[in-house]
Amino acid sequence: xxxxxxxxxxxxxxxxxxxxxxxxxxxxxxxxxxxxxxxxxxxxxxxxxxxxxxxxxxxxxxxxxxxxxxx
Length: 71
Ligand code: SF4
Fold this sequence. Notes:
single chain, alpha+beta, Alpha-Beta Plaits, two-stranded antiparallel ribbon, 2 helices, globular, binds iron/sulfur cluster
């Protein structure tokens, strides 16, 4: 599954990392990113293995500004 973070809209709340730290990282003072392991070319786009789809979907639901999308 592909996942994308619209980093311009991210408010750096940390909810995605708290919900699914296997996929998301929110460094202090920075927008959310995909962890390096699953990152594609840029830090806002990733490809997630099946075992982490549920966790990723929970993180999507946790984002208060709905800037994480999957496909
Ligand atoms: S949950 Fe959404 S707003 Fe919060 S850090 Fe993650 S992507 Fe940004």
